[in-house]
């Protein structure tokens, strides 16, 4: 993948620097960003250095203090905006008891009310809208499960083994042909879309980039490990039924089997994963470290909130009442 | 060998024993989790082999992909959930 297109002053300065030799003196300040879009693409690219990198960027930039400094400035904005929105949606817990956490977390996720993109695709979306949705979704699905992988070494025994049990299934149970990222690649190709990693980043909406960034942010900061797992739990717990709707919508529109199969796989896989994520990962972690309970809900909210924002933005563009 | 004293007895609290995880788990208001390879015979006598390390078996009887859970229990009123 090549560096994406800059979307403002900060990303222009950052991407210009990244094309130089590492060690080149660069003074970058997150404060020069023009707007949320400029910040989102700059942060996205600075995270991407930790995943697969860019063909036109020297890999040594990954740990450049200059890039890390600007990344930290962007994360500060991301985190404060996220926490501000979370403050308006804090859970009403039954109690502080860890025994109530699974129920409270499932209830919190179920009570969240947002626009349903899957329902729209199931019954009303046009082929062109669905193609656009797949391109937008590809920014995440081609690195599906990767942001949670950062958390593994940061966990104690029980939650660590449980997270690996879940991740193993995400990564195809050892079979590359079943790797979820790869199922999506095959689905994109069959649908006539590009399947290479990062192919559609230049057209990614700001909410899509922000959603991606939130996952990397939570995954890469050890202090937020419980929030990363709360995000995972909410993601899995809001996947089975919407995946079935997506599969039905894709079939309605005559999309090829490969992309339908990607969503069908998630109906059954995520019915398992949501139970593992809540009962075997989040609950035992909080049992060991009770002060992490609120972070689990923060992460769950981050998932629900960023998914909503992506859906609302696209539906608005299409002139659909959400 | 030097004359060092034997290792002190390990403090059990410092090294908690992790319990063996269960093979079958009944999730409150949800499916039955089943670990490992298994063949399930459904009520009609059809056999289904598990395809993943952990499978979720429908307990609400409303799944569209029986015997596997598809999350439908969440759409049921609480008193109709398993």
Automatic annotation (TrEMBL), chain A:
Pfam families: Haem_oxygenas_2
InterPro entries xrefs: Haem_Oase-like_multi-hlx (IPR016084)
Domain of life: Bacteria
Classification via SUPFAM superfamilies: Heme oxygenase-like
Protein name: Iron-containing redox enzyme family protein
Organism: Nocardioides deserti
UniProt lineage: Bacteria, Bacillati, Actinomycetota, Actinomycetes, Propionibacteriales
Automatic annotation (TrEMBL), chain B:
Coiled coil: none
Domain of life (superkingdom): Bacteria
InterPro entries: FeS-contain_CDGSH-typ (IPR018967), MitoNEET_CISD (IPR042216)
Keyword Iron part of the UniProt annotation: yes
Name the record gives this protein: CDGSH iron-sulfur domain-containing protein
Pfam families, per database record: zf-CDGSH
Domain Iron-binding zinc finger CDGSH type, residue spans: 29-79
Keyword Ribonucleoprotein: no
Entry keywords, A to Z: 2Fe-2S, Iron, Iron-sulfur, Metal-binding
Positions of the UniProt region annotated as Disordered: 1-20
